[in-house]
Amino acid sequence: MPTVFFTNQLARFIDAPTVVVPGKTLGGVLGNVFGDHPQLRGYILDDQGAIRRHVAVFIDGLQVSDRTELSQPVDDKSEIHIFQALSGG
Hints:
This protein has 89 residues and is an alpha+beta fold. 21% of the residues lie in helices and 21% in strands.
C-alpha cells in the first residue's frame, strides 16, 4: 500500500503521522488518509477539493501535476510526500 509522509512543519499545527493506506490514485489515497485523520483535509485541500496553492505534493519524487482531479496513479510501493510550500523573500 502507498505510504504518505507529511512535513514536520504541518505537524506543528495538527497530528500528521506517516500513514500506509490503500488507493490506486492520489485522490483515493488522500480520501483514505482523511477518513482516519479528517483534520488534515482542510490543510491539504481547498473547498473545491483541489490541492491548496501553498501545498506541494510529490509521488515517488515527482511533483504532482494534477492538482484538481487528483487522478495521478499510485502503486503499492509509492511514496507520497506532502509539504507546505514556503514563500516569502
